[in-house]
Amino acid sequence: MIIKNSEFTISAVSPKQYPSDELPEIVLVGKSNVGKSSFINTLINRKNLARTSSEPGKTRLINFYKVTYAPDKDADNKQFYFVDLPGYGYSKMSHTQQVEVGKFIEQYLVKSSKIRLVVLLIDIRHDPTADDKMMYDYIIKNNVPCIIVANKADKIAVTKVDAQVESLQQILNPLKDLNFIPFSCERKVYSDKVYEILDDVLE
Ligand SMILES: Nc1nc2c(ncn2[C@@H]2O[C@H](COP(=O)(O)OP(=O)(O)O)[C@@H](O)[C@H]2O)c(=O)[nH]1
Ligand SMILES: [Mg+2]
């Protein structure tokens, strides 16, 4: 995948604002602060197109970013959306607010028929939270294609990354039927596998 261009499209607060074109969508889900916006920025080679926040979880918006890319250097340009969903599990939110965010996320996942892939982001350093497990179960139950990405791999020793990913997969996806991969917004080496997966699902 060669990224040609990317642009912010809309911050949607309700389904009628979701883009009405038929472009496929790659959706980021995960708890607040896990690196959803950073993940998008890393893949599109932009420092801060997707807004990373010092006050995570404050906004209940769904941000759409339109990406123009070529599958390889001889191929024609194609497009898709990166969809940045609000994070769940923000500790400073009340339970009621957290339930609201959950409903908001679910509304999008139910309403959109253009989802090609959900990228469930977790933190490589920590066991999946109860919310991560709920999200995982929801995705599986609804038969949405999914990969699990263990982000912030730069925060642990390179030699420990594979074993840590293996142990997280044992907890969250013991059947090992999903792509479960390390990632780092700081280390480009992990991006290649993601581009490969995106090319596959967008084909
Ligand atoms: N070291 C490191 N920091 C990261 C990585 N990904 C995100 N961060 C940092 O984690 C914080 C939250 O990132 P953000 O993308 O806003 O998370 P979001 O709430 O899930 O969108 C920011 O300070 C990022 O710079 C990573 O792979 N490595
Ligand atoms: Mg964000």
Write up what this structure looks like.
The protein is an alpha/beta fold and 203 residues long. It has one domain: Rossmann fold. It contains five helices and seven strands; from the N terminus they run ββαββαβαβαβα. It has helices at residues 36-43, 95-111, 130-141, 161-172, 191-202; strands at 2-12, 25-30, 62-70, 78-84, 115-123, 146-151, 180-182. A seven-stranded mixed sheet has the order 1-3-4-2-5-6-7, with helices on both faces. Helix 4 links the parallel strand 6 and strand 7 (180-182). The protein is globular, with a radius of gyration of 16 Å. The protein starts with a strand and ends with a helix. The relative contact order is 0.18. The model has no long low-confidence stretch (mean pLDDT 92). Bound molecules: guanosine-5'-diphosphate and magnesium ion (MG). Residues 36-37, 52-53, 84 line the site of magnesium ion.
Q: Write down the Rg.
A: 16 Å
Spatial order of the strands in the main sheet? 1-3-4-2-5-6-7
- Major sheet size, sense and barrel closure: 7 strands, mixed
Mass-distribution shape:
globular
Report the oligomer: single chain
Query: What's the end-to-end separation, in Å?
Result: 11 Å
Mean pLDDT: 92
